[in-house]
Write a structure and sequence with these properties.
The chain has 7 helices and 7 strands, in the order βαββααββαβαβαα. The chain has about 180 residues and is α/β, with parallel strands linked by helices. The protein has one domain: FAD/NAD(P)-binding domain. The strands form 2 sheets. It has a 4-stranded parallel sheet. The longest helix has 15 residues. The radius of gyration is 19 Å and the shape is globular.
């Protein structure tokens, strides 16, 4: 699909929506990209993310100078894991990994997308009543607003979407070592 000179609305200004806005603006600079985000600009929730080499390389391929700033300023790097249990410490080599807070990564991606020309609109909730009007106002409507997406719910028969919920148990703690 050639999106040159088209209008795209991305519903969801989280990581997926921001990353997609960057990729689309780099591929189709003349495309109008609007990103609708439910929250206020300063309201980000979540702790953070781990970034392994393939994702780091993808970010670098988009803009090396910009990503270098992120990786040197905002990220924590580790390549070893130390596990302490019952007074015994075990150490393991680990895939080189970076950690970043959700707010820093979102600010980085949003600023990047905005500098490329993506237009962010905050405090925009998506309701079933708005979906058809949104769809009619653009050439492509993209649902990137999470697992409980109103758009996916609205088009669930047409798209034949399914959700399966389950339990995931994990523990993640970082202790900065000297």
């Amino acid at each position: 699909m050639n999106l040159s000179n088209k209008k795209v609305i991305i519903c969801g200004g989280g990581l997926a929506g921001c990353f997609l806005a960057i990729l689309l603006k780099k591929s189709f600079p003349k495309t109008i990209i609007k990103v609708w985000e439910r929250e206020e600009k300063e309201e980000e929730s979540g702790l953070g993310y781990t970034i392994q080499p393939p994702v780091k390389h993808k970010l670098e391929s988009l803009d090396l100078a910009r990503s270098t700033q992120l990786f040197h300023k905002d990220l924590i790097y580790w390549d070893k894991i130390h596990i302490e249990a019952k007074g015994v410490t075990s150490s393991f080599d680990f895939i080189p990994t970076f950690g970043v807070t959700r707010s820093n990564l979102l600010a980085y991606l949003r600023n990047f997308a905005e500098e490329l020309g993506a237009l962010f609109q905050y405090n925009r909730s998506i309701t079933p009543e708005k979906i058809e009007n949104l769809r009619q106002s653009c050439d492509l409507l993209i649902a990137a607003e999470g697992v409980y997406s109103p758009i996916r719910q609205y088009y669930k028969e047409e798209l034949q979407t399914q959700q399966t919920c389950g339990k995931t148990f994990y523990i993640f703690a970082i202790k900065m070592l000297p």
